[in-house]
Design a protein that fits this description.
Layout: H1 2-28, H2 33-52, H3 56-74, H4 81-103, H5 112-119, H6 130-137, H7 157-183, H8 189-210, E1 212-214, H9 216-219, H10 222-233, E2 237-242, E3 247-249, H11 250-271, H12 275-280, E4 287-296, E5 299-306, H13 313-322, H14 336-341, H15 364-373, E6 377-383, E7 387-395, E8 400-408, E9 411-416, E10 420-425, E11 431-436, E12 439-444, E13 447-453, H16 454-457, E14 469-473, E15 481-485, E16 487-495, H17 501-504, E17 509-513, E18 521-524, H18 526-532, E19 558-565, E20 570-574, E21 578-585, E22 589-592, E23 595-600, E24 603-608, E25 618-625, E26 630-644, E27 647-650, E28 657-663, E29 666-671, H19 673-681, H20 683-687, E30 691-695, H21 699-712, E31 716-719, E32 730-733, E33 747-752, E34 761-762, H22 766-778
Parallel strand pairs: 2-4, 9-18, 13-15, 20-29, 24-26, 30-31, 30-32, 32-33, 33-34
Antiparallel strand pairs: 1-3, 4-5, 5-7, 6-7, 8-9, 8-16, 10-14, 11-12, 12-13, 14-15, 17-18, 19-20, 19-26, 21-25, 22-23, 23-24, 25-26, 27-28, 28-29
Helix pairs in contact: 1-2, 1-4, 1-10, 2-3, 3-4, 3-5, 4-5, 4-6, 5-6, 7-8, 10-11, 11-15
């Protein structure tokens, strides 16, 4: 019985927030019968399960809600805002009872007032008492959100099968190691180790996917939240949600819940105006709030936008000056973006007073801190009278973080790789350290930035800590400083675990890992170190030149990954399209249909190589992505992150090389990002949604020869004896006998057995057929 109750609790939790959102959406469109049916199914399921499990309070509450929903489905009762609030109060109480059941506790609150409010008919001159409903529900200002310690997750059976296959590969690799060690065959250990490494990488990736959840679970509470807050403030707000199918680590979802809730509260309370103010500003009376998620490579971007009044920069600057955050003489040098960024400073707000809804003593500085603890960034863009947009950029998962391992004295630490701009030698001519006041600046290529020495920060001053290098790090967008250390150890993907609270309280560490050395490795908190060192980076003082303090680094600087290519030419690729650096066995790269392909963990990626690839051993590749298409680019040596700020000369002819950068008197070819993906993302993307009908021709020829060619061009295919559920975009007449087939509004491609035909394409002229398919796709199906 305990297992059945646990399953009931798990399923009820999964459905609660989703159903609250569906109820709010149905309130806006009562004609949506599908949503009403889904809400009814939820309470009906709870009623049936609670009756079987002998949970009388669950059963009574769900039965009362089911009766009212039945009347709404039958059309014998009309919905109104108060009735929806009453149903939401019932759902909240079911959630509270479910959490109490999980903890073995009891809730003493009386359910009868909630049921009475639910069953009360609305009559002319009589309104439901919202105050009495809040009092009965015991939660006056916000919806009840179950926050029990959920440690279970649903995993597709297919993924479990893949995990089992990965474990089998590990067992085989272990057996091979044991056999070779027993036989003393040291020559074959390299190959066995590569196989074991590949199996571990694949298994690690698959286990990471078991932790993934749709971000829909984070967004599910927003419709209810927006409805309740806008109702309390007397505002009308429409919520748009996009990207709910994006997947994110479930722990990331939980850690993003509070920052997202705070931003949404602020948007409704301080951003979106009241109806009369909006009408006076010639806006629609209903405000709009949009929340969207999208995946780019191995990161997720969440965008929260409103069409409110925007940030009052004058008021924000006034408070910043009063708080001593910025000097009045520096205001004229601040850009609009830098002024908006002041909202993240502790204690600064444009609100006249802290409200019960969005203040509560927690400011946007706490939101930024929480996001940065996840290895993410947050930025704000605002236009007066137009609205405000917040952008949160976070990694897909916290469990595995690509890092650079560095050393200082006898200690080693790790720095998250996405935060690293470049590594410079302090002994080089173009990097100089100057002491200014009580701090140090790194002068490099005409710009300067604060320099922080790890040895001084951790109290490790010793002759053995010879700080010869500086890592340029960027804790958040538009900010950077230099971290001095004495060596770089190498790149590693680290499995990061949380630290003890007393260590986290120092503000300088983001977690710990246990590498193969067996010694704990601390992950540095780049933003926390900046705060600990007292750096003020938001005013960009760290990027001013010695000649003109107001000058900032040129926007033409290119963050890139620099490497020696397979043809021994020094090249670079923009860091934004690099997903990760991978090492693969040469046997996984094969030439198929005139194109190199990489088989990687069930995926098949096209491979670009500037020179011949080895037939054995390992190959280093860059996995590149434009957010939709992934490709592998083979390189001939190690890759380093750098900022290319030398003179750039574009090439005359368009192609795979965009231009040449003169970096410290070394010419570096910059790859053309657009050209890299154009070859693999063009044709199928244009025709992906188009339908082609093949008519005539022998069954075997059109099925086995023509159809694959058409599908390779991205079309979906039906034959002349099949019904199409949508208009056909292209008709292929497979031979002369079928000319005259009537398909309304479709382009026609005619094939012929005659090579000399003037009005048809020879049916074995592959290049001509492919060009025709491509031309029809770009023409949008026009003849």
């Amino acid at each position: 019985m305990d297992e059945i109750i646990a399953e009931f609790i798990s399923e009820t939790r999964d459905m609660l927030q989703h159903v609250s959102g569906e109820l709010v959406a149905w309130e806006r469109d009562p004609a949506d019968r599908t949503r009403l049916d889904e809400i009814f199914r939820f309470v009906h399921t709870v009623k049936g399960s609670s009756g079987f499990l002998d949970l009388p309070r669950h059963q009574r509450l769900s039965h009362a809600a089911e009766d009212v929903l039945s009347e709404l489905r039958a059309g014998s009762r009309e919905p109104d805002a108060a009735l929806v609030s009453a149903i939401l109060a019932i759902i909240d109480r079911i959630g509270e009872l479910t959490e109490a059941l999980d903890k073995g506790e009891e809730i003493d609150a009386d359910d009868e007032p909630l049921i009475a409010e639910l069953t009360q008919e609305k009559t002319p001159g009589r309104q439901r008492s919202t105050a009495s409903l809040d009092e009965a529900a015991g939660a006056p200002s916000e919806p009840s959100v179950p926050r029990g310690p959920v440690r279970s997750i649903r995993v597709p059976v297919e993924l479990l099968d893949q995990l089992m296959a990965g474990v089998s590969d590990l067992v085989l690799s272990r057996n091979e190691f044991a056999r070779r060690f027993a036989a003393g065959d040291n020559d074959g250990l390299d190959l066995a180790f590569e196989r074991l490494s590949s199996s571990i990488t694949d298994l690690r990736d698959r286990i990471s996917w078991t932790r993934m959840q749709r971000i829909e679970s984070l967004f599910a509470a927003l419709p209810r939240l927006v409805r309740d807050i806008s109702g309390q403030l007397g505002k009308s707000v429409a919520l748009d949600i996009d990207g709910s199918d994006v997947e994110l680590d479930r722990e990331m979802i939980e850690m993003l819940r509070d920052p997202l809730t705070h931003i949404v509260r602020n948007a409704i309370d301080h951003g979106i105006e009241s109806e009369d103010v909006r009408l006076a500003a010639e806006k629609l009376p209903e405000g709009r709030l949009s929340v969207a998620a999208r995946q780019t490579g191995n990161r997720i971007e969440i965008v929260i936008s409103d069409d409110g009044a925007g940030i009052d920069r004058a008021k924000l600057l006034e408070k910043a000056v009063a708080a001593g955050v910025v000097a009045e003489s520096d205001i004229a040098n601040l850009s609009d973006a830098e002024r908006d960024d002041l909202i993240f400073h502790p204690g600064l707000t444009t609100a006249e007073k802290v409200s019960e809804i969005s203040g509560r003593g927690v400011g946007m500085d706490v939101v930024r801190t929480n996001v940065e603890r996840l290895g993410g960034t947050i930025s704000v863009e605002s236009l007066a009278g137009i609205g405000t947009t917040f952008r949160l950029n976070v990694p897909l998962t916290l469990t595995i973080i690509p890092s650079l391992v560095v050393g200082c004295g006898e200690e080693i630490y790790a720095i998250p790789r996405p935060m690293i701009g470049e590594i410079v030698s302090l002994a080089s001519d173009h990097a100089q350290v100057q002491r200014v006041g009580g701090g140090e600046l790194l002068m490099m290529r005409g710009a300067h930035m604060p320099l922080v020495r790890l040895s001084g920060l951790f109290g490790e001053e010793s002759p053995s800590c010879d700080e010869r290098f500086a890592v340029i790090v960027s804790p958040r967008k538009g900010e950077r400083y230099a971290l001095a250390l004495d060596r770089t150890v190498g790149h590693e993907d680290l499995v990061v675990k949380p630290l003890a609270p007393v260590v986290m309280a120092t503000g300088m560490f983001a977690g710990s890992a246990l590498p193969d050395t067996g010694l704990p490795l601390l992950l540095l908190d780049i933003a926390g170190i900046a705060d600990k060192a007292g750096l003020r980076l938001n005013l960009k003082a760290g990027e001013a030149t010695s000649e003109d303090p107001a000058r900032v680094v040129s926007r033409s600087d290119i963050q890139a990954l620099v490497f020696d290519d397979c043809d021994q030419v020094r090249r670079a690729v923009r860091i934004g399209i690099v997903d990760r650096v991978i090492k693969v066995e040469a046997q996984h790269v094969r030439n198929r249909a005139g194109q190199l392909h990489l088989t990687l963990g069930g995926e098949i990626l096209p491979v670009i190589a500037a020179g011949p690839l080895p037939e054995s051993g390992t190959i280093t590749m860059l996995r590149l992505t434009d957010g939709e298409t992934d490709i592998a680019y083979a390189i001939g040596g190690p890759a380093d992150i750098a900022t290319l700020d030398g003179a750039f000369r574009p090439v005359r002819e368009p192609g795979r090389i965009a231009g040449i950068v003169n970096q410290d008197d070394v010419p570096i070819e910059l790859l053309n990002s657009h050209d890299l993906f154009a070859e693999f993302a063009g044709r199928s993307a244009e025709a992906a949604s188009k339908l082609c009908r093949i008519v005539g021709g022998g069954d075997h020829w059109r099925e086995e020869i023509l159809r694959p060619l058409v599908e390779m061009a991205g079309y979906r295919v039906v034959f002349d004896d099949e019904e199409a559920d949508e208009p056909v975009d292209l008709v292929i007449e497979a031979n002369a006998d079928t000319i005259g087939f009537d398909e309304a509004a479709a382009a026609v491609l005619r094939l012929s057995d005659d090579r000399s035909s003037n009005d048809a394409v020879f049916r074995y002229d592959r290049e001509a057929i492919s060009d025709a398919l491509d031309r029809h796709a770009r023409a949008g199906g026009q003849s």
